[in-house]
């Protein structure tokens, strides 16, 4: 009976927390019936948003505050002995008479790219169910560029490759690591000029083919000043 | 003791000229010179330009400008945005080939090749060369030896002998080493320089070989421990290891020649403010703060009544906050100013650098370390200028017209770092 009732209480407070219109950690703690100065020793407060919170005299011994935003909090007289503060943001926090023994703290590294890691406010004991599944954002660079040191962008001028989906003023991604093969779309140097064409390598002939009937193929012979500059991997074509 | 040390010196061939030619391939064949800042003199030239009579490194540009009118020569202003980016690409490609790479300058790097057995080394070096050329377009030369100084010697010869195809390994090849050292002027040995060169020549030591075979006590007496180390290196005893970690910066200088003589104090102040702001930005990027600041200014060396003066001051509290540094810099600039001088060049040097998070507070300064606003302001400034381009947001004291600005009349595009300046391909 007792268990059932406390189970019911728990359900209620979860409902209340979910329904709460606030993201404020202290408010949420209050709804959960917790006292921030007493009930968070050893708590899991990873990634919690505590901006500007008043945590004077709070007992946060051994709390896991990794990635928490503690900027401009008042931690005067608080006990953070053994707390984990890796990547926590302590910008502007007030730390008078705070106990800071045994903490692990690495200042927040601001030059990293901003990965959207769980900033959902978490009340003690009820972490977000998504927390373990967050993977960071999709990165187009990672998707489109396999060899950053050898990848260049160029802009298209002309319509000879319309058939291959390459239009004037599109941006091409060029990877110089890739070996040009029969059928590759390549940037070639012809008489000192950069040009984009489809490479034809068959029957001991080298041809540069346009993808537009208005243009003739160009046969490369021993007298042509010719070099492959790189292989085109993607077209960036703006639709608006 | 380890005896199998093996170091390669990688040097990009005519680096600035090559960077230009990667994006404008006509320039592999047309004679090309790249000019120093302010389009003053030739700092880099390609092979076809070297073949032209009267065109040399260091030549003042105005003496050969007429060649550009007739199309015999192409000139480019220094495009450091492009060269910096291409240098990064070359260096990260080199890191594919060795666990220990020391970036020595914008176009040179030392690579440890200890992990490659001696009979595969030349082939491996050719592969490095081909890979860098394919990935970045930049041609390089490779000299390999037991020590950095000998690797430099090998590299010096590689460029002069086309048959070597860009690679020379003289490790353990003592006969070849003697040959090369015998034909190398002592002044061209890495680290000797003009002053020691003249001194040694006067003593009859005119080749690298003669220097190598001097007695230790003699070298130590005339050139100290640094000189002795250098001679040991020539003997194949490595004293200068490949340093993978860059040493912390000791100072930060920004200086420029003016595009036209500066005759008004207002203009000099604009220039000094601009240089200070750039230097402060560099410090913030590296999380450093300056404890002292010097300013120098001079008139043209080629005109009468050459005037050159510099002054420095210590800051009460080290900082990287632009307005504070500018205030100090302008106080000094005021002392350098003379109404009867036409200034040709000026610069700002920030020294006594410390970690910005470990600043020693001063007893007499009203600096408030709790006040985060100056820091936030600088962060905002840097972020905006990074995203929208240099000097999108700037201090008014940096000037609006900047008619003193360095000349760069023949600047190519920033092909690799600006969306609106990408190379065009014909289609």
| Assembly category | heterodimer
In CATH, what is the class of the domain at 148-236 in chain A? Mainly Beta
In order across it, which strands form the biggest sheet of chain B? 5-6-1-7-8
Radius of gyration of chain A: 30 Å
The beta-strand count of chain A equals: 7
With helices defined by DSSP (H or I, 4 residues minimum), what is the helix count of chain A?
3
Q: Uncertain runs of chain B with pLDDT below 50, 5 residues or more?
A: none
Total of helices of chain B: 13
Identify the CATH homologous superfamily of the domain at 148-236 in chain A: Umud Fragment, subunit A
Helix content of chain A: 10-25%
Average pLDDT for all residues of chain A? 77
- CATH hierarchy: architecture of the domain at 148-236 in chain A: Ribbon
Whole-number mean pLDDT of chain B: 92
Main beta-sheet strand count, sense and barrel state of chain B:
5 strands, mixed
Helix content range of the residues of chain B, please? 25-40%
> Main beta sheet of chain A: strand number and arrangement?
7 strands, antiparallel
**In CATH terms, what is the fold-level topology of the domain at 148-236 in chain A?**
Umud Fragment, subunit A
Our estimate of the beta-strand percent of chain A is 15-25%
Question: What does this entry look like structurally?
Answer:
The complex is a heterodimer of chains A (240) and B (427). Chain A starts with a helix and ends with a strand. Chain A is 12% helix and 20% strand. The longest helix of chain A is centred in the first third of the chain and has 18 residues, at 2-19. Among the domains of chain A are: 1-34; 114-144, no CATH class; 148-236, Umud Fragment, subunit A, CATH 2.10.109.10. Chain A has three helices and seven strands. Chain A has helices spanning 2-19, 25-31, 140-144, and strands at residues 151-157, 171-175, 185-190, 193-202, 205-209, 218-220, 226-236. With 240 residues, chain A is α+β, with helices and mostly antiparallel strands. Chain A is rod-shaped. Chain A has a seven-stranded antiparallel β-sheet with strand order 1-2-7-3-4-5-6, with no helix packed on it. Chain B has 427 residues and is an alpha+beta fold. In chain B, 36% of the residues lie in helices and 20% in strands. Chain B has 13 helices and 14 strands. In chain B, the strands form three sheets. In chain B, strands 5-6-1-7-8 form a five-stranded mixed β-sheet. In chain B, strand 5 and strand 6 form a beta hairpin. In chain B, helix 4 (80-94) runs antiparallel to helix 5 (121-136) and helix 11 runs antiparallel to helix 12 (322-336). The radius of gyration of chain B is 24 Å and the shape is globular. Chain B starts with 6 loop residues before the first strand and ends with a strand. Chain A binds chain B through residues 91-92, 107, 147-150, 152-161, 166, 168, 171-172, 176-177, 187, 189, 192-196, 227, 229, and chain B through 23-29, 88-90, 92-93, 134-137, 357, 372, 415-416, 419, 422-427.
């Amino acid at each position: 009976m007792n268990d059932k009732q406390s189970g019911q209480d728990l359900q209620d407070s979860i409902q209340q927390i979910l329904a709460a219109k606030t993201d404020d950690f202290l408010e949420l703690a209050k709804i959960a019936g917790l006292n921030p100065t007493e009930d968070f020793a050893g708590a899991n407060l990873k990634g919690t948003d505590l901006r500007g919170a008043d945590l004077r005299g709070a007992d946060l011994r051994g709390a896991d505050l990794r990635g928490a935003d503690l900027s401009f909090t008042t931690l005067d007289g608080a006990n953070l002995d053994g707390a984990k503060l890796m990547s926590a943001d302590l910008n502007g926090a007030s730390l008078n008479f705070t106990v800071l023994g045994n903490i692990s703290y690495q200042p927040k590294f601001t030059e990293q790219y901003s990965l959207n890691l769980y900033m959902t406010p978490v009340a003690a004991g009820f972490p977000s169910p998504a927390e373990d599944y967050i993977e960071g954002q999709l990165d187009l660079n990672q998707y489109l560029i396999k060899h950053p040191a050898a990848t260049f962008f160029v802009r298209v001028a002309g319509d000879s490759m319309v058939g291959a989906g390459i239009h004037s003023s599109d941006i091409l991604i060029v990877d110089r690591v890739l070996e040009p093969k029969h059928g590759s779309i390549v940037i070639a140097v012809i008489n000192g000029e950069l040009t984009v064409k489809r490479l034809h390598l068959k029957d001991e002939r080298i041809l540069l083919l346009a993808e537009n009937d208005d243009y003739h193929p160009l046969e490369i012979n021993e007298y042509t000043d010719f070099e492959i500059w790189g292989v085109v991997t993607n077209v960036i074509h703006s639709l608006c | 003791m380890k005896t199998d040390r093996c170091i390669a010196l990688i040097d990009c061939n005519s680096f600035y000229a090559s960077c230009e030619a990667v994006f404008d391939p006509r320039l592999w064949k047309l004679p090309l010179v790249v000019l120093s800042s302010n389009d003053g003199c030739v700092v880099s030239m390609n092979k076809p330009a070297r073949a032209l009579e009267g065109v040399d490194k260091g030549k003042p540009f105005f003496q050969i400008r007429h060649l550009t009118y007739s199309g015999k020569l192409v000139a480019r202003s220094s495009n450091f945005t492009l060269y910096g980016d291409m240098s990064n690409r070359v260096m990260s490609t080199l890191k594919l080939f060795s666990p220990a790479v020391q970036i020595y300058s914008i176009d040179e790097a030392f690579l440890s090749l200890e992990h490659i057995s001696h009979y595969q080394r030349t082939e491996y070096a050719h592969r490095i060369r081909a890979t860098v050329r394919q990935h970045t377009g930049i041609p390089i030369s490779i000299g390999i030896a037991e020590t950095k100084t000998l690797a430099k010697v090998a590299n010096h010869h590689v460029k002069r002998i086309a048959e070597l195809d860009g690679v020379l390994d003289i490790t353990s090849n003592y006969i070849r080493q003697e040959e090369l050292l015998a034909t190398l002027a002592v002044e061209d040995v890495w680290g000797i320089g003009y002053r020691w060169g003249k001194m040694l020549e006067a003593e009859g030591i005119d080749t690298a070989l003669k220097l190598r075979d001097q007695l230790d006590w003699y070298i130590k007496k005339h050139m100290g421990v640094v000189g002795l180390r250098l001679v040991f290196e020539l003997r194949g005893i490595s004293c200068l290891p490949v340093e993978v970690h860059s040493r912390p910066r000791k100072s930060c200088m920004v200086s420029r020649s003016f595009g036209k003589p500066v005759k008004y104090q207002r203009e000099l102040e604009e220039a000094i403010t601009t240089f200070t702001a750039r230097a402060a930005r560099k410090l913030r990027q590296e999380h450093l703060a300056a404890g002292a600041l010097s300013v120098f200014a001079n008139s043209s060396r080629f005109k009468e009544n050459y005037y050159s003066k510099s002054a420095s001051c210590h800051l009460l509290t080290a900082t990287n906050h632009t307005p504070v540094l500018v205030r100090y810099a302008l106080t000094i600039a005021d002392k350098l100013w003379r109404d009867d001088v036409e200034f040709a060049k000026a610069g700002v040097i920030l020294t006594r650098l410390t970690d910005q998070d470990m600043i020693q507070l001063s007893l007499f300064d009203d600096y408030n370390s709790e006040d985060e606003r100056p820091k936030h302001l600088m962060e905002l400034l840097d972020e905006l200028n990074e995203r929208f381009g240099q000097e999108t947001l700037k201090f008014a004291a940096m000037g609006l017209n900047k008619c003193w600005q360095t000349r760069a009349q023949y600047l190519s595009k920033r092909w690799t770092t600006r969306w609106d300046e990408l190379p065009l391909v014909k289609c």
